[in-house]
Amino acid sequence: MLKTKHILLLLEWYDYRIHKGVSQMARKYGWQLNCPKNQTSKTTQSGILKDWDGDGCIAMIECDETFNYLSDKNIPLVDLGLRNHQIPIPRMITDNEKIGELAAEHLREFGHKEIFVLDPGDNDMFKERLKYLQKFTSKEGGTVTVLKSATEMQSEVIDELKNIASKRGHKLEALSLGFFAYNDSIASELISLCLKNGLRIPENIAILGVDNDDLINSSLVLGLSSVDSDQEGLGRASAKLMHDLLNPKNKIPKRKIFRHSPKSVIARRSTDCYAVRNPLVSKALHWIQNNFYKGIQATDVAEAMGVTQQGLQKAFALNYIRSPGNEIRHQRIQAVAFLLSTSNANLESIAKNCGYYSVNSLINSFKQQYKITPGKYRMQKKLENSI
Q: The pTM is what?
């Protein structure tokens, strides 16, 4: 009979979703999983680790006590953190580059060419997310403005935003700004600050978080748009890596960094407003959003707005990132990608529900946008969700 493996899950920043993901795989592999929830820097060395004697440890290595202990422990280790240490162990971390790309793309789609963020302070994860947000925002000609008033969500943040608006000749209440929060907790605090200061969300400040934390979202008065970092999947992936490490036949590079990809942006009310000051374009965008699945064309949009097609095209060219026709196609293809990822509907049904006159038209448009067929895209998403 095989000996039961005893695995320690050490999360100095406890996340129930990581715990859940690791637990799912622990049951599959027949492990005894230990995950103490009261994991502070003081109790780690003197309590949890002092008498623990197991077969492997999955840890978020952040404090010196954990670092010093694990560096001398001769057991398989998987690090979930970003701390700059020299322990020769593999890491399984969130792909913050992809998070930055998804965040920049989502806010850009709603017209935000400038994105505001907090000063990341000494937080390595926040600094990495900011780095990639800047990379992908600047790639499309946009900018990221880092607020210097605070590293945490405090009243000074609103004061600084008001000062920025004033220097540009406006009141904050008259602007439409995009704000990227490094996680949903920060986003939640910003929502509270905005509401206390009479600011409308998303009309004045569109807020995008990270993690898609259902507990946080359920406590808010409006839905929070968030990049789903798939922390549960990260837990499963880290457990699978530990399973591979426990097999001495597997040769895994000791310093290799594995990056777990986020799923997508889960769009909700907190960003559901186009950042365009032209009322005609704003109205047209919302009309397209509500009617793209009907097989409409740019001429239909102009007719619904009561303007000429030439006038509508000119307004879009001056105030938005896409033409009316391209916006219709964009809305359709996004809807197709969503249905491929979340449903088992066939292509005929998807084409009909997204405004395409034929399946071939859908396939050609999808391949042009994603460089792969709808079928391969669906297989990729199913594979990602199964990890």
A: 0.78
